[in-house]
Structures are given as structure tokens and as C-alpha cells.
Amino acid sequence: MATLKEKRTCGQRCEDFGHFVWNSDEGKFMGRTPIRWLYISLYYVAFYVVMTALFSLAIYVLMYTLDPYKPDYQDRLKSPGVMVWPDTYNDEELEITYNMSDKNNWMTKSKILQDFLEPYNDTIQAQCNHYNCTSGKYFIQHAFDAPKHTKWSCPFYQSMLGNCSGIDDPTFGYNTAQPCVIIKMNRIINFLPNNGTGSAPYVNCTALEGQDNVRGYTYYPTNGTLDLSYFPYYGKLAQPTYMNPLVAVKLDLVNQRHAVIQCRVMANNIAHQNYYDPYEGKVIFHLTALS
Ligand SMILES: *[C@@H]1O[C@H](CO)[C@@H](O)[C@H](O)[C@H]1NC(C)=O
Ligand SMILES: *[C@@H]1O[C@H](CO)[C@@H](O)[C@H](O)[C@H]1NC(C)=O
Ligand SMILES: *[C@@H]1O[C@H](CO)[C@@H](O)[C@H](O)[C@H]1NC(C)=O
Ligand SMILES: *[C@@H]1O[C@H](CO)[C@@H](O)[C@H](O)[C@H]1NC(C)=O
Ligand SMILES: *[C@@H]1O[C@H](CO)[C@@H](O)[C@H](O)[C@H]1NC(C)=O
Ligand SMILES: *[C@@H]1O[C@H](CO)[C@@H](O)[C@H](O)[C@H]1NC(C)=O
Ligand SMILES: *[C@@H]1O[C@H](CO)[C@@H](O)[C@H](O)[C@H]1NC(C)=O
């Protein structure tokens, strides 16, 4: 036979609950005496105070050791990447193809270069970076002498790109078979090209395919040099007006007017054979002039 459990009414249950909340016989509140509740509360207060203190201490130590002028995770990047403008990507390969007899077509290429060079405008550079830099020397700055607790940045003027500056020839040569491309090396904080030996890195372009179709390379500035005064770069906070130095190359296409060009930045500490990063230290692009 099943034991018949005594059915309790709702009123009785409420009474039980009330008894649990405040048991006047034993002087217990929610099953514990007030003094025990006090101990439990004190324990938790102490517990949270200690936890908060530990947490704050950890945050404080972290903040204290962080240098706002340096990013924290860049230990992997040792060698800078290289890019080319006008930048037209076609599948994995970089392809600069233009039709020199189609004005609308080549204008798009010139326009890309004009837009890219806008921040290098001589007037703007003279205003933002009016520091007299000594060319041929690393520009090492330990102090924050520039306004607003920053460091100076050397100006890079558009006009330094000579015939590829777009000033005398706003087409950048894209209406002919002598187009200009612009090579830019990415920034790496505290990177000293040629690790401190004092010789400047330079850009060297060669044709990997179609050597016979390239009659010549003209570099601006002279010799394709990236002047040492643009190095080292101290980071965005320290040098908010920093501009990457550039090298423009005017190629002279002949015959089929097609070539695969490789432009390398030459320095003893710039690698260029990284299988996993084809843009490290160099850039390869297909250049074709149609007519
Ligand atoms: C280049 O442009 C010219 C003029 O618009 C056109 O006649 C010619 O077919 C174009 N060439 C190619 C290869 O598309
Ligand atoms: C540079 O900027 C000035 C003033 O905005 C402008 O007059 C000049 O045409 C610009 N130069 C070039 C080459 O775009
Ligand atoms: C930089 O040098 C030029 C010529 O030597 C001088 O006219 C100019 O005032 C100098 N600018 C600064 C900011 O020192
Ligand atoms: C720039 O182009 C002009 C005209 O084509 C030429 O005479 C001059 O030598 C070129 N300048 C340089 C530095 O190559
Ligand atoms: C540029 O690279 C080519 C091919 O690697 C080499 O023959 C030439 O000597 C280099 N020029 C300079 C100035 O380094
Ligand atoms: C360019 O390189 C040549 C040969 O190495 C050198 O004689 C010349 O002084 C260099 N010019 C500049 C402006 O660096
Ligand atoms: C410069 O860097 C290269 C490549 O990272 C290295 O082989 C060479 O020993 C370094 N030279 C100096 C003086 O640090």
C-alpha cells in the first residue's frame, strides 16, 4: 500500500514558509541566526574588497608598463612590405594595364596617382612638416621636441618625384609608353634600414619577363634613394604627421610594351625571399601599355 502523504493546504505551506523566513522559536532568520548572517556578510564584503583590489592592481600594473608610443604586438614584423601605385589587383597578381590612346582609360591611372600624392602636396608638407632635416643621416630623436609632445617628421614633397610628380606632367606618362609607377615601403616602428650602418636604402627595378620590352628605368629621387632622414619611424602617436618616403620609377616601354617588373628595396636588413609574404621587401607587377 502506498503511504498516503498528508496533503497540505496552501495556507499551511505559506505558514511553513513564513516559519522558515523567521523562526521565532529558535530566533533564526532564513535558517540562520542574525549573528551568523552578519559573519557571512562580513566574509563576502571582505572577499569582494580583496578581489577588487587585486583586479585594480593588475590593471594598474598593465597600464603602467604599457608605452602608449609603441604598439605591443609587432615582434613578428621585421622586414617591411612594399607596394606599388597605381594599385590594380587582378586575381592574385598585380596588373597595371592601360590604353594610351584611350583618354578615359589612362586618365583613371593618372587620377589614382594624383589622389595618392595629394597629402604630399608641397604646400601641405611645408605647413605640416616644416622641420629642416639633414639628409643622408638617420633622424634619431630621443626627446619629444615638436609641439604637443610629439617628434618631428621630415617633409616629403611631391616635387621630389621630378618628372613623375604630376606637377609638370599631370598624366604621369600614361598617355605614352613611359608610365610612372610609385613605390612605397611600409612603416615599421624603430626600423633602421641597413641596421645602423648609415647607407640609404634604394629601389631597384628589373624585368623578370620581357626584358627586351623595357628600354630604361628612371628613378625619382635620384638613384631611387629613400633618404635616411625618414628613419626611424616612431609611431603614429609620436609622429602624427609622418609621411612615408616614396620612389617613383618612369619605365620606358618598347616593342610589345609588356613586362613583368620586380621592384626591390635594397638594404642589408630587408628580406625579399619570404615565400609566405611575396610583398616583403619587393613588389612584382605586370605592366602593359595598349594602343
Ligand atoms: C585602345 O583605345 C583605342 C581608342 O579608344 C581603341 O581604338 C583600341 O581598340 C584600344 N585598344 C585596346 C587593345 O583595347
Ligand atoms: C597643392 O595645393 C595647393 C593649395 O591647395 C594647390 O594650389 C596646388 O595646385 C596643389 N599642387 C598640386 C601639384 O596638386
Ligand atoms: C630651414 O632652412 C631654410 C634655409 O636654410 C630657412 O630659410 C628656414 O627658415 C629653415 N626653417 C626652419 C623651420 O628652421
Ligand atoms: C624630365 O622630362 C623632360 C622632358 O621630357 C626631360 O627633358 C628631363 O631631362 C627630365 N628630367 C629628368 C630629371 O629626367
Ligand atoms: C639591380 O638589380 C639587378 C638585378 O638583380 C642587378 O643586376 C643590379 O646590379 C642592381 N642594381 C643596383 C644599383 O643595385
Ligand atoms: C647616385 O649614385 C651614383 C653611383 O653610385 C653616385 O655617384 C651619385 O652620387 C648618386 N647620386 C645621389 C644624388 O645620391
Ligand atoms: C644587419 O642585419 C643583417 C640581416 O638581418 C645581419 O645579417 C647583420 O649581421 C646585421 N649587421 C649588423 C651590424 O647588425
UniProtKB/TrEMBL annotation:
The gene is ATP4B. It is a single-pass type II membrane protein. The chain crosses the membrane at residues 37-63. The ATPase pump is composed of two subunits: alpha (catalytic) and beta (regulatory). Interacts with alpha subunit ATP12A; this interaction is required for the formation of a functionally active pump and targeting at the plasma membrane. Interacts (via N-terminus) with alpha subunit ATP4A (via the P-domain). GO terms for cellular component: apical plasma membrane; sodium:potassium-exchanging ATPase complex. InterPro entries: Na/K_ATPase_sub_beta, Na/K_ATPase_sub_beta_sf. One of its GO terms (molecular function) is ATPase activator activity. GO terms for biological process: cell adhesion; intracellular potassium ion homeostasis; intracellular sodium ion homeostasis; potassium ion import across plasma membrane; proton transmembrane transport; sodium ion export across plasma membrane. It is found in: Apical cell membrane; Membrane. Its main location: membrane. The beta subunit of the gastric H(+)/K(+) ATPase pump which transports H(+) ions in exchange for K(+) ions across the apical membrane of parietal cells. Plays a structural and regulatory role in the assembly and membrane targeting of a functionally active pump. Within a transport cycle, the transfer of a H(+) ion across the membrane is coupled to ATP hydrolysis and is associated with a transient phosphorylation of the alpha subunit that shifts the pump conformation from inward-facing (E1) to outward-facing state (E2). Pfam families: Na_K-ATPase. Belongs to the X(+)/potassium ATPases subunit beta family. The keyword Glycoprotein applies. This is Sodium/potassium-transporting ATPase subunit beta. Keywords: Cell adhesion, Cell membrane, Disulfide bond, Glycoprotein, Hydrogen ion transport, Ion transport, Membrane, Potassium, Potassium transport, Signal-anchor, Transmembrane, Transmembrane helix, Transport.
